[in-house]
Amino acid sequence: MKKFRAVSRTDIGRIREKNEDAVACSDRLAAVADGMGGHPGGEVASAVAIALTQAAFTGQSIDELQAAVRAANRAIWDRASDELEGMGTTICAAGMTDGGILAVVNVGDSRAYLLRNGTLTQLTDDHSVTSEAVRRGEMSEEEAREHPHRSVLTRALGVAPEVELDAATHPVDQGDRLLLCTDGLFNEVADHEMASLMTSTGDIQATADALIELALSAGGRDNISVVLAEICA
Ligand code: MN
User: Fold this and answer.
1) Measured in angstroms, how far is the CA atom of residue 63 from the centroid of ligand 1?
2) CA of 15 to the centre of ligand 1 (A)
3) What digits encode the pLDDT tens for the residues 200-211?
4) Distance of CA 190 to CAs 34, 39, 143, 145, 215, Å?
């Protein structure tokens, strides 16, 4: 039976007045959410997304994790139509199933990465205007990085009664490390810098702290959230 151990850290950054990110970490779930819609909607949307996903995922299956995220979508949508119009959130959730398989569900532009044998691989696709243009071959990665529309999402949780999810399972081994993060990290810190920190730091809490510090020293222009998990025997 593989064990899953996760730690997290979230930081308001250097510019923003509110932290609209939310995180979850437990012995079977790692998740980040990046809320939008201004005060107080963004904070509410990300907090609801994380709370409902965490409450409903018991480790059964990827279907259970998808159902949890769909229920969160519906709850945010209902609340948005009542009181907090325009709110929404990303969510990227990685759950360890009882079968020892990692289930990843993603909507928006938060990310999950897997570090295995020193190689960092992004497990999720960003749902943003620029990332979709890159996948269609219409824009280069360099153009996308500097593009004014790079944070315009094509999918989010809570903005419609139904949501299209990306969902995939990944086999994981002892020694694998998982990173979930909001765009406040990867817009400031290059993938190779994340990989080298994750490889060189033994303790995952120290790694999480170091990643946040790196994003802050690079500018900290957005809220920054990371959840790190390791697969143990
Ligand atoms: Mn963000």
Assistant:
1) 27
2) 12
3) 988 999 999 999
4) 19, 30, 15, 11, 10
Q: Are 76 and 87 in contact (CB under 8 A)?
A: yes
C-beta of residue 178 within 8 angstroms of C-beta of residue 198: no
Q: pTM, whole model, 2 decimals?
A: 0.96
- What pLDDT band is residue 39 in, cutting at 50, 70 and 90? low
Q: How far is the CA of 173 from the centre of ligand 1 (A)?
A: 30
What are the tokens at 176? 């694998």
| 18 alpha carbon – ligand 1 mean position (Å) | 11
pLDDT one-digit tens code per residue, 53-107: 999 999 999 999 999 999 999 999 998 887 777 899 999 999 999 999 999 999 9
Sort residue 106 into left (φ over 0), alpha (ψ -120 to 50) or beta: beta
Residue 125 contacts by C-beta under 8 Å, 6 or more apart in sequence? 106, 131, 135, 166
- State the distance from the centre of ligand 1 to the C-alpha of 153, rounded, in angstroms: 11
Ligand 1 center to residue 33 CA distance, Å? 9
- Measured in angstroms, how far is the CA atom of residue 10 from the centroid of ligand 1? 11
Q: State the average pLDDT over residues 205-218.
A: 97
What is the rounded distance in angstroms from the CA atom of residue 190 to the CA atom of residue 107? 22
